[in-house]
Design a protein that fits this description.
3-stranded antiparallel beta sheet, 13% strand, 7 helices, 306 residues, 9 strands, alpha+beta
Length: 306
């Protein structure tokens, strides 16, 4: 019979397999150590995270790690009026504002600052008297002497929405009423084009009206008569004559004022019944030519009502 394979002794088999198992046990130990280290690291991370959550709750409900806005952005959230110039260190640090932001941040328009009303009354100086005589606004035949007239310097509100200084020649006994009424017009911001004595226009009533000049004294007759006008006494004023023409027998004075015949236009400078101008002069005791029946003189106010 053929001999079978030779078997190794049992002890020899155990000896042969023994060395192969030892390395396997040695390799398992590093894996277990690594797992322990990993587990410990995870526990530490968990503890750190929990501490961060607790700290975040104490500072406003947000984890400390989440508060990472740069200082320039935090400061730029404050109003521009209170932020110091150094708050925005560079344009790239702050996002550009939207059109809505710019509109809401822009200040709302406010009325133009208005200086207080001022007025003074003085006797006529030599230069002023000479100018009046030279222009013909006063002559020796006038019903009042130069000594009875006064120079009134006062503040008025212009069509340009700014305060101006004007000058009027008026009777001494009319200055209080004039200043009182014109103060009310200034407070109401009623616009006046200009306010200079008629000497600037050669004492021409027509030229002064065309220039829209507000004036008081002019030593002249009522147009078409030989009766002295109240202007010759220094007790009447014409205000914005271009916007407030005289209308008589279908004729308009000044002739350039036809646009303003329609009193319903409500344009700046127009005087209408019961408005601030009419009330101001009524309070001072002066009558309005716009209430006359034979003619309408919308620019005219006088102490006698004529």
């Amino acid at each position: 019979m053929t001999p079978g394979p030779t078997r190794a002794p049992v002890g020899a088999a155990h000896a042969a397999t023994g060395p192969a198992r030892a390395p396997a046990r040695l390799a398992a130990r590093p894996r277990a150590g690594f797992a322990v280290v990993l587990l410990a690291a995870l526990l530490v991370a968990l503890i750190v995270f929990m501490l961060a959550v607790v700290a975040g709750c104490a500072t406003g409900g947000q984890p400390a790690s989440a508060v990472s806005v740069p200082a320039t952005q935090r400061e730029s959230s404050t109003p521009a009026a209170s932020a110091p110039p150094s708050a925005v260190s560079s344009p790239s640090a702050v996002s550009s504002p939207s059109a809505t932001d710019l509109q809401s941040a822009a200040p709302s328009p406010s009325p133009i600052a208005r200086p207080p009303f001022a007025a003074s009354v003085a006797t006529l100086g030599a230069a002023r008297r000479a100018a009046m005589i030279r222009s013909g606004s006063w002559t020796p035949r006038c019903p009042v002497a130069l000594d009875e007239l006064r120079l009134v310097t006062l503040t008025y509100w212009g069509f340009d929405h700014h305060a101006h200084t004007g000058r009027l020649i008026a009777n001494a006994d009319a200055t209080t009423a004039l200043v009182t009424a014109l103060r009310r017009l200034y407070d109401a911001r009623f616009p006046i084009r200009r306010m200079v004595p008629v000497d600037a226009y050669g004492a021409s009533d027509e030229r002064a009206m065309e220039a829209d000049d507000t004036s008081v004294f002019n030593g002249r007759f009522v147009a078409g008569t030989t009766s002295w006008s109240q202007h010759a006494y220094g007790r009447a004023i014409d205000i914005d004559p271009l916007e407030n023409p005289e209308i008589k027998d279908g004729k308009v004075f000044p002739t350039t004022a036809r646009r303003y015949v329609d009193r319903t236009l409500g344009l700046p400078g127009m005087i209408v019944a019961h408005d601030a101008v009419v009330r101001a002069f009524a309070t001072a005791g002066w009558g309005w030519g716009g209430a006359w029946h034979s003619l309408r003189d919308y620019q005219h106010f006088s102490a006698t009502g004529t």
